[in-house]
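Handout, section 3.2

Students often ask what a structure token actually looks like in practice. Rather than define it abstractly, here is a full record for NADH-quinone oxidoreductase subunit D. The first block is the sequence as you would receive it.
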Amino acid sequence: MAETETGPAAAGTATHTTVGVGGAAESTDMVLNIGPQHPSTHGVLRLRLVLDGERISQAEPVVGYMHRGAEKLFEVRDYRQIVVLANRHDWLSAFANELGVVLAVERMLGMEVPERAVWLRTLLAELNRVLNHLMFLGSYPLELGGITPMFYAFTERESLQGVLEEVSGGRMHYMFNRVGGLKEELPAGWTGRARAAVAEVRAGLPRLDELVLGNEVFRARTRGVGVLGAETARAYGVTGPIARASGVDFDLRRDEPYLAYGELADTLRVVTRTAGDCLARFEVLLEQTRNALELADACLDRLAELPPGPVNQRLPKVLKAPEGATYAWTENPLGVNGYYLVSKGEKTPHRLKLRSASFNNIQALRELLPGTLVADMVATLGSFFFVVGDIDK
């Protein structure tokens, strides 16, 4: 006998077997919940799967378990205080999150930041990108059964983590951006230590390449698995490494340059693949990490040429943005991150809407998972490189 879930007949709700014994499961669909607490979901995400034997026939990402109401909290914080809320939704990309919101406020104010601050922001954004990518480069093989890459990835992360902690005082939530520039000047000798950390990470990347991409088991588990087509990626607004692995050649740093990226066009490489599978997504992430290190070196070279100068603007005691609206978007490590700011001329935003990369990216699982085997679900889910806080905001 099987226990089923059935809705009102008038609503035409389908009947699914949720628990079955004997032969009942052979002729009916089974509903399987992955999460909201599950090792493969990167946090409190729930996947509601309908199975036909070992094959997924329907997939529904259920979000909201971690919702903090950040967008409403923005409305009762002034323009200096909202930075502390903005940097937390993607906790692996805190500097990039801060950057987007201060760029929006500066655009509303018509404010130009000092050149030194522009180059420093670009440098720190790329170092933050490397930190984000190294986490997924280590954790994704772990989800498929390989523990060693995680140790190497965290060894490299600690090198960069040290220099970012030294410059900002924060280990995860840096709070180093300010409206008008950065919190303060760099510590003495910091650029030399940053350059050494970049070189150390670059020297360690081949180990990840050999351990993971050179592993036949990893390639067998990821090649041709979880294929996301370019049209589906565009339809769902998928961005970042996931979209570029499907052949969507789009990167805001090149296509709508901000900060100093316009001057780094010769160094910036937009890495793409066409396969759109789990393997392609990992390859794009690894190549982007290499390019981010090259961009960081280019920023360090430029900073060495700049004369000493301020890294921020002097602000009034009470900061008010003029009445109006603006939208600022940046190429965050996980994809496009945007802030739509509406001001009524007060010291707090009237409305601040967040467009986070992970929210759009995870919706594509509806199209991607049906037709795949349950055994491949974890490989596909892990290759989407999302942060649950970035979904629930």
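Discussion prompt for tutorial groups: The longest helix spans residues 115-143. How would you have guessed this from the sequence alone?
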